[in-house]
Write a structure and sequence with these properties.
By secondary structure, this protein is mainly α. The chain has 8 helices and 2 strands, in the order αβααβααααα.
């Protein structure tokens, strides 16, 4: 087995445990069963929100923060190049996101269907409720997928910055960007751009797609940042 195959195998086992066992079997499925039983036993009203996606929204960005740090030195020690590792990490991470979101929405579909059969009025916690008035499986799935991409892409982008420049420099950089943004916005330099964007009429699917696309750009922007990264992150006070 060559180094690339070994790294793919290592990452596959880690991703399958994290997304299939931890998120799906240990959290999402038990929560779905609990909410089904609660809905049938307690006759929940429409003010109740069945939350089975909350833990997934937490663990998806968590993988962007900790997955790289734990797997990177092991993969390099096995003989993998940084480029090979990053390509495997992107593909396995995105594959895990797609799998997790698909299974999550299947569980939500089962929950909603059982509620409808038994006249339970409770709703579900879902990002698509901000955009869509009625439940549509593929619409909810697509928006959820874009949210998952956003959680993974932006969290890994932030993690890559901290990894390369250090925590303190990252905080200083963030403050510089925030201060510059405040002065540019209130000075009128970029306020017109925000006004233009707020007046653009877009569908829920288009908005979600744009957010997901930006997140993917942020994800792949980490490639030039990490292709020559050291084995250990910049010291916290560096």
């Amino acid at each position: 087995m060559n180094a690339q195959s070994a790294v793919l195998r290592l990452m596959y086992e880690d991703v399958s445990w994290y997304f299939a066992k931890l998120i799906l079997l240990f959290i999402t499925v038990p929560l779905t069963i609990v909410w089904i039983i609660a809905g049938l036993v307690f006759d929940l009203d429409r003010e109740t929100i069945a939350a089975i996606s909350g833990p997934a929204y937490f663990f998806l960005p968590y993988f962007g923060f900790v997955g790289f740090k734990s797997l990177f030195p092991i993969s390099i020690g096995m003989g993998s190049t940084r480029e090979q590792f990053l390509k495997a990490y992107y593909s396995m991470g995105l594959g895990g996101i797609i799998f997790s979101v698909l299974c999550l929405n299947i569980c939500q579909y089962a929950l909603i269907t059982i509620y409808q059969w038994n006249s339970v009025e409770a709703g579900i916690l879902h990002a698509a409720r901000l955009f869509l008035e009625e439940y549509h499986f593929f619409g909810y799935l697509w928006i959820d997928l874009m949210v998952g991409m956003t959680c993974f892409g932006l969290s890994f982008f932030c993690n890559a910055i901290v990894y390369r420049v250090g925590f303190m420099r990252s905080v200083i950089l963030l403050m510089i960007v925030m201060v510059a943004g405040i002065f540019l916005y209130h000075g009128g330099a970029i306020s017109a751009l925000f006004d233009l964007m707020s007046n653009i009429k877009m569908s829920a699917m288009a908005i979600a797609s744009c957010i997901g696309a930006v997140s993917l750009v942020a994800l792949f922007a980490t490639y030039p940042m990490l292709r020559h990264a050291p084995l250990h992150p910049m010291p916290r006070k560096g």
